[in-house]
Amino acid sequence: MADDKRGTAAIKTPAGCEDVFFSASDGLRLHAADYGRHDLATRDRLPVVCLPGLTRNTRDFHDLALLLSRDEAAPRRVVSFDYRGRGQSGWDKDPARYTILVEAEDVLAGMAALGLEHAIFVGTSRGGLIMHVLAAMRPGVMAAGVLNDIGPVIEGAGLVQIKAYLSRTPTPRSWAEAAEILADAHSKSFSTLTPKDWEDFARAIFIEKNGKLVPDYDPSLLQGLKGVDLSTPVPTLWPQFEGLGVMPLMALRGEHSTLLSAQTLIEMKRRVPSLQTVTIPGHGHAPILHLSGIPAMLKKFFAAVDKQRRH
What homologous superfamily does CATH list for 18-310? Predict the structure, then answer.
């Protein structure tokens, strides 16, 4: 099954990050970004595992990971994963294997390779769905969780929006144009972003390959979206969500999100009263975790989880 068709890409490891490569059960070479791995000061605290969205990669978490791993009062190891077909991970010969279940198994393989027994999970969009699957497969690996703009009910309108955007994203001719394309597409949902934020957004999504800027994922990944019947409701994951509810849990929702509705967030809180819910003003799907005061919220939540485990 293993393959790698990434081509020649200009990849520069961000400062403060260590690239780690490991093998999936089928032999595919997968990538993780590890922050604070060798810092003795992080070893008394739970590490954080970050899981990106459908077509996204470890760069989405770089700024947050630096803030957490370099925090003077409570530094924390942070590991983010590139799923197969994304970022620096290999591409799969069989696009049918780009599934949440396979990706959950890959995350478990990565945790074993990096010596992570338990962690606080942060899952953005698809990453949060993987957390729902892990709640059924291996709940013991999660000490606590943050669901970033995702829940057990996926709104059809949000899927329509994602499918339309991914199917018609133009090819930018420069980094400045890439930032402009993203701002044109998303500025109504992300009204608080600055020009610098849009540039950072672009560099998290695109990569320079063979002299061109292209999205940093295997195009075959989108075959799964083509088969989604948007005229029928997407199956819900309430039993899996309630499985997540046995541990400390926080849910973030972008104010303008079309994938996680306000009504679903209310129902999540009703079913799991201990759930902490936060709506992020000026953000859509999904909130950008190093902006708008979110790091301070996460640090407070993580500290409470550490304190609870000590007692």
Answer: Alpha/Beta hydrolase fold, catalytic domain (3.40.50.1820)
